[in-house]
What does this fold into?
Amino acid sequence: MKKNLAILILSLEGDGAERVVSILLRELKDDYNITLVLMKNIIDYEIPKEVEVVLLDEEEEDSKALKFAKLPFLAYSYKELCKKYEIDISLSFMNRPNYINVLAKTYGNESVCIISERIAPSKEYESSSLKDSVSRYMIRNLYPKADMIIPNSKGIEEDLIENFSIPSSLIQTIYNPVDLERIDSLKNEECSFPFDYFTYINIGRLHPQKNHKALIEAFYYLNDLDSRLVIIGEGELREELEEFIDNLDLRDRVFLIGRQSNPFKYLKRADVFVLSSNYEGFPNVLLEALACETPIISTDCKSGPREILTGKNTTSFHLQRGVEEAKYGILTPVSDVAALSEAMKKMKEDKSLRERYKRFGKMRVKDFDKNKIVEKYKKVIELAFAKNRTMSCAQ
It folds into this structure.
């Protein structure tokens, strides 16, 4: 008899955790009776007909203070929802759903509580603001009450242990899956954007975390009239970045083209993908670039890029200066515009280097194939279930 699994997430709008959840819905529906619980009724992905969708709350206009005040009430509602649907296992993604999932457990929810951390909390909540202070407090005090915690990188695992005192026994790291079949079917679609020049590409929301200004500035210092920079994504910094591009007189060479339903056809045609982020969780877009055989330059930020591009589960070292030619891509220090520009120049001038990264990347991305990663999710879900039931019987 199949177990009842609830997956709790803010919405299915976006390209990070949301895309991972969309893959899990398709791949786990034959093993579990799945209820998808959303807090915003926004869905950008196809939902299998076997999956029931339930809206826990509609909070698009809520202030930060109101969102925090509503947490206990949402947790109680979620506990009642799990009781109604006889949920055996509750799996949540991202911080706010994670808080609700764990709080529901403290209110008596009998479902196995599994939470998934998608970003390094010490970086995401590093300021002295009230919001960040509360978030650090919630993570430190709520997360240890979960039955299992799934970070999506070793860097996040170490962050939780070292900076939030989370017991390592609660943690099982699982990297993000990539749907290679889907990307292969989409990357060769016709693309109206002209790739007549050597093209660098970036995909990511226009947010300070992604540090697009450093990327645009690095491109400016190339002083290369035969190159173009394409940035896919939307966000709060669009106007500011447009003004920055105008001030550098780059409006004819740097293009902000917004969100694209099929970014893979752009990735496939671009010459180099560049990630300029200050920090990440586990950047799916690097896996997607590998799948499109697009050579990669990335900041050596915490966390994810070093694990992906070196092929080693190491997070203890981060590049401080210069340029590192790793096995599967080039790494540069965070916020180092000169090094980023140097790497971009090197990648353009060295065709043999680009060809090598194309070959190696095609091999590397197979390690993250959805079939392998989904099997790991199944094992961890069943491990958490068995552990919870053993403890319940012992009490």
